Amino acid sequence: MRRFAYPESVERWCVFEAAINGPSDGNPFLDYRIKGTFQSKNEAKTVEGFYDGNGIYKVRFMPSFEEEYKFAVEANFTDEKYEGGFTVTQASENNHGPVRVANTYHFAYEDGSPYYPIGTTCYVWTHQKAELQEQTLETLKNSSFNKIRFCVFPKHYLYNLHEPLTYPYEGTPCDSSHLNEDNFSYTPDFEDNKWDFKRFNPRHFQLIEKRIQDLMDLGIQADLILWHPYDRWGFSRMSREDDDLYLNYVIARFAAYRNVWWSLANEYDLLPGKTLQDWERFASIICKKDPYNHLRSVHNCRVLYDFSRPWVTHCSVQRTDIYRTTEDVDQLRIRFKKPVIFDELGYEGDIEHGWGNLTGQELVRRFWEAACRGGYATHGETFINPENILWWSHGGKLYGESDARLKFLYRILCETPGNGLKPYSFSWDDVAAVPDTPRDTGYYLVYYGFNRPGFRRFYFDDTTEYKVEIIDTWNMTITDAGIHKGRFTIQLPRRQYMAIRLRKV
């Protein structure tokens, strides 16, 4: 490559990358530093760069304005000046910028377009063979999902015993050839791992960022899980110094992608040796080093994190009760006054674990409960299949029934005034919502879940007319129930998973 390479133009909210050649002797990850300063009429930012292997150093930047930019790259291994300029062009039709918190409890893109997260989980899909990764992308392309949770580090777990495609560090892993479902242990022996935690394997991170870009092209948010406890390689037990080195490297590589979210951990409270002070330190590094203020959270197992912490942008929740899941959304809204996403509410599937054998009906019910209580939810799927490839971990294909129904829910959300719902009560035994706006929109959505009333009565006033529709959330139908005023009764089909939508005429 040329000594100094960069594009002449880049689309707004896309990745600008400048690369220079430099030394590869010693340890480039520790010995050498590179940074870039970017200036336009409306913004000025300084970002740290990173070593990408083979003597190549890179700086990445996400421009926020359509205008001319100038930039300069500095490195501690040369006195040479690297300066240039580029033009930022108009965002393309499906490029709405990064996702932000909007109206306290909801989300919107940078350009103001509403964003309703319909998430899924594929923990280590980027660590699988290329063919399986491509199949996952094809599935996502045709799915309802606009957010996906996945890990930077590989995962050691039931149905996850094979080795990853790449490792994040130079070195050699422990011998895992003897592992099977019968001798699996949550606390494996780490002794035989031989890693240099001061030397990253750029190939590992290159593969991840390629998939972040692929997701961005599909309009899907990449909710990156930075740490997790399910580990046989020792990545969850690194020193404070190595943790911080890793986090700085990840931020430098990934922050310029507009679709990145930072999830500090999956099940932070299970990570050995990590304290609350560690998580707060990681958060402070992200807040300091991420110049684009991407969304940030941390995910629990048994103990909720204190989501009131100022660095937390939204609540990323796993159920802490066997029976109650998204029924807790409205209480969490009150408690934390932030968007609530039930990122782990159980999985549609048929494995032996109670968290992994929900019916499609129950998973969809939990999504509707979340929406009508003013929050959001995340899907997962754990069906046993001949290839033993489970979506929740590996990606691949979907076998369940929920995806099409979640796409239907997304349609309902998009048809709702404003950019989100808030809880509303007609009576003690319903789950209802109205648009989360300061003004009365005359819009009501009532969900009956696993109940199956034969009729429901309504009264607003004597004169206002309402168009009423009966929504079958499972069969994905919307039936016109006429225009009504005063006291009126709506007949229902005595089936579960029904809803009523009322809109003022």
Question: Would you write up a description of this structure?
Answer:
The model has no long low-confidence stretch (mean pLDDT 97). Helices cover 20% and strands 30% of the residues. The chain contains 9 helices and 32 strands. Helix 5 links the parallel strand 18 (260-265) and strand 19. With 505 residues, the protein is an alpha/beta fold. An 8-stranded parallel beta sheet has the order 19-18-17-14-13-23-21-20. A 6-stranded antiparallel beta sheet has the order 25-26-27-32-29-30, with helices on one face. It has 3 domains: 4-89, Sandwich (Immunoglobulin-like); 99-414, Alpha-Beta Barrel (TIM Barrel); 421-504, Immunoglobulin-like (Sandwich), CATH 2.60.40.3950.
Task: Describe this protein with a few key phrases.
single chain, 505 residues, six-stranded antiparallel β-sheet, 9 helices, 32 strands, 30% strand
Quickly describe the structure:
The chain is an alpha/beta fold and 505 residues long.
Map the helices and strands:
Blueprint: E1 4-5, E2 9-11, E3 16-21, H1 28-31, E4 34-39, E5 44-48, E6 50-51, E7 56-61, E8 68-75, E9 82-89, E10 99-102, E11 106-109, E12 114-115, E13 118-121, H2 130-141, E14 147-151, E15 169-172, E16 194-200, H3 202-217, E17 221-227, H4 240-254, E18 260-265, H5 276-289, E19 296-297, E20 315-318, H6 329-336, E21 340-344, E22 348-349, H7 360-372, E23 376-379, E24 381-382, H8 391-394, H9 402-414, E25 421-424, E26 431-435, E27 443-447, E28 455-459, E29 466-472, E30 477-484, E31 487-491, E32 498-504
Parallel strand pairs: 2-9, 13-14, 13-23, 14-17, 17-18, 18-19, 20-21, 21-23, 22-24
Antiparallel strand pairs: 1-3, 3-7, 4-5, 4-8, 6-7, 8-9, 10-11, 11-12, 15-16, 25-26, 26-27, 27-32, 28-31, 29-30, 29-32
Helix pairs in contact: 4-5, 7-9
